[in-house]
Amino acid sequence: MKLLDKALLMDGDAIRRAITRIAHEILEKNEGIEQLALVGIRRRGVPLAKRLQEKIQEIEGTTVPLGALDITLYRDDLTTLDVQPVIHKTEVPFSLHGKKVVLVDDVLYTGRTVRAALDALIDIGRPQVIQLAVLIDRGHRELPIRADYVGKNVPTSKREVISVRVMEVDGEDGASIQDMVD
Amino acid sequence: MAWQHKDLLGLRGLAKQEIELILDTAAPMKDIIGRDIKKVPTLRGKSIVCLFYEASTRTRTSFELAGKFMSADTVNIAAASSSVVKGESLIDTGKTLDAMGTDIIVIRHAASGAPHLLAKHVKARVVNAGDGAHEHPTQGLLDLYTIKERKGRLEGLTVTILGDVLHSRVARSNIWGLRTMGAEVRLCGPSTLLPPELAITGVKVFTRIEEALEGADVVNVLRLQLERQKKGLFPTIREYARQFGLNQERLKRCKSDVLVLHPGPMNRGVEIADDVADADFAAIEEQVTNGVAVRMAILYLMMGGSGSGAVH
């Protein structure tokens, strides 16, 4: 299976603007930063959450706590996968009790990753509320899950792939849509 | 890389990358043990049978908790209360467990090679939890994990394994694992408790403890297997303690940041002095915690990604 680039969805500037807007939306919806915390889903959700943290710091002058969640152990398809996923560390170095947690990921697709992340979070602590921020929502939900903050809605077909690249992981910022070719 | 074996029968023959994969997977597992809710749904619906033909507290409980923390269903079978007493063979017991849909059989047996025999005859994956005086791979792995956690590396370290090597499956798994990972291994004990074949595996053999400890980074003290000492392999326990017991004075020959390990259960005052066993530089309790993490990692690696058609 090969992937062929079809179109660029977001360049670095577009991602930066989307992060800025989401940061403002988070602050508006939660009426400030009290009890606010950000948790990125590994891998690319973590650098995006870090950028949201920096943007919120820029706007409010205060740093909100930041965590990283690995959801591998919570996946519901582990024993059917061909390739075993590598487990990374979950690092949530603050108590989730009573927090307004914003989960951050790059792409929202079937909703299974988010479901796993919700289970993982609730096993660590009991937040007051959990919200979801994603850079791109591509549709095709298999579970009743909806994002609270979306950088860009991109209607896709199931034969397409959304590729988000971030400087911290991939050495560049960008999001593109690709076609699967047999 | 992914785990490519059906079974885990020993550390001999495992590649460096495979050992690294297990140790790397164990690190996030240890975090789970430290949480209030020690449970993840990873192995929900999978069944693990601990088939123990020999007594055990920590290994059996460790495997059972590792399975439970990952939501597998675990069952313990002690040979004394099973059909073994009616004369059922190991292979037939294995086939019975297979027919019940068991995914993993964890076996401890007094006979070296018993897990290998079982693995050949069952569909279930088999984990060796100690076979005779052969191997105890999960103990070896938890020792490697503990050393790496404390020292930050395994390569280039000097590890002295001290005591009753002859009867020790822990020693053998340690030797294979440590050598694969690039550590220097020294063995030390009374010559009657040092099997001659181990000298040719590239380890250094000592009968004087002072020489064996000189500049060592890690000392792994083996349990003197008192139940097997009726063959007169050394004169008295008192003499053994005087000649080979690890105490503070002898430890001064090691590196100043020496790490002391012991697989337990300990004979305090025989192979290890009280004040050594309880010191900060000893990681004996931590080894037990790490044992659960390492076993969780192994269960995960053996059960995850089974679509790959894993091989023997």
Automatic annotation (TrEMBL), chain A:
<dbReference type="Pfam" id="PF00156">
    <property type="entry name" value="Pribosyltran"/>
</dbReference>
<dbReference type="InterPro" id="IPR050137">
    <property type="entry name" value="PyrR_bifunctional"/>
</dbReference>
<protein>
    <recommendedName>
        <fullName>Bifunctional protein PyrR</fullName>
        <ecNumber>2.4.2.9</ecNumber>
    </recommendedName>
</protein>
<keyword id="KW-0805">Transcription regulation</keyword>
<comment type="function">
    <text>Regulates transcriptional attenuation of the pyrimidine nucleotide (pyr) operon by binding in a uridine-dependent manner to specific sites on pyr mRNA. This disrupts an antiterminator hairpin in the RNA and favors formation of a downstream transcription terminator, leading to a reduced expression of downstream genes.</text>
</comment>
<comment type="similarity">
    <text>Belongs to the purine/pyrimidine phosphoribosyltransferase family. PyrR subfamily.</text>
</comment>
<keyword id="KW-0328">Glycosyltransferase</keyword>
<feature type="domain" description="Phosphoribosyltransferase">
    <location>
        <begin position="12"/>
        <end position="164"/>
    </location>
</feature>
<dbReference type="InterPro" id="IPR029057">
    <property type="entry name" value="PRTase-like"/>
</dbReference>
<comment type="subunit">
    <text>Homodimer and homohexamer; in equilibrium.</text>
</comment>
<dbReference type="InterPro" id="IPR000836">
    <property type="entry name" value="PRTase_dom"/>
</dbReference>
<feature type="short sequence motif" description="PRPP-binding">
    <location>
        <begin position="101"/>
        <end position="113"/>
    </location>
</feature>
<dbReference type="InterPro" id="IPR023050">
    <property type="entry name" value="PyrR"/>
</dbReference>
<dbReference type="GO" id="GO:0006353">
    <property type="term" value="P:DNA-templated transcription termination"/>
</dbReference>
<dbReference type="GO" id="GO:0003723">
    <property type="term" value="F:RNA binding"/>
</dbReference>
<comment type="function">
    <text>Also displays a weak uracil phosphoribosyltransferase activity which is not physiologically significant.</text>
</comment>
<dbReference type="GO" id="GO:0004845">
    <property type="term" value="F:uracil phosphoribosyltransferase activity"/>
</dbReference>
<keyword id="KW-0804">Transcription</keyword>
<keyword id="KW-0808">Transferase</keyword>
<keyword id="KW-0806">Transcription termination</keyword>
<keyword id="KW-0694">RNA-binding</keyword>
